[in-house]
Amino acid sequence: MLTLASKLKRDDGLKGSRTAATASDSTRRVSVRDKLLVKDEGYYQGGKFQFETEVPDAYNMVPPKVKCLTKIWHPNITETGEICLSLLREHSIDGTGWAPTRTLKDVVWGLNSLFTDLLNFDDPLNIEAAEHHLRDKED
């Protein structure tokens, strides 16, 4: 995983699809789409969730950007797909944010934990979903 960004850059160079000016542009992003999670337990049992992951050129010094493409009612995911997961933050107060030693596999495990044990009701991103869950778990 440490070499993912350099491999993607190298593949771009082999295709010759970019000029030298754009290849050195640090704002260029590589986008990867994949179905990451199929839940077989908990509130989201049977659900299939698709995420978009953007791996920046500065990866793994900075975290990837992840967005949930599947419409979901979740305390830590907004209706527009923004995700509240500490390991996706470049700077985190509790020390659980992104570090160069983290990998994309850690991101997948973190996303998986949002559907099992990391439902955050103390500081939810989607307040309505958190209140709804606390009010009526069965619904």
What does the model show?
With 139 residues, the chain is of the alpha+beta class. It has a single domain (30-138), classed as Ubiquitin Conjugating Enzyme (Roll). 26% of the residues lie in helices and 17% in strands. It is built from 4 helices and 3 strands. The longest helix has 12 residues, at 4-15. It is globular.
In a nutshell, what does this entry contain?
Helix content is 26%, strand content 17%.
Question: Keywords, please?
Answer:
single chain; 139 residues; alpha+beta; Ubiquitin Conjugating Enzyme; three-stranded antiparallel sheet; 17% strand; globular; disordered N terminus
Helices and strands in order:
Layout lengths: L3 H12 L4 H4 L5 E10 L9 E9 L8 E4 L35 H11 L12 H9 L4
Antiparallel strand pairs: 1-2, 2-3
- Secondary structure tally: strands: 3
Mean pLDDT across all residues, rounded? 75
Structural class designation: alpha+beta
Q: In the CATH hierarchy, what is the architecture at level 2?
A: Roll
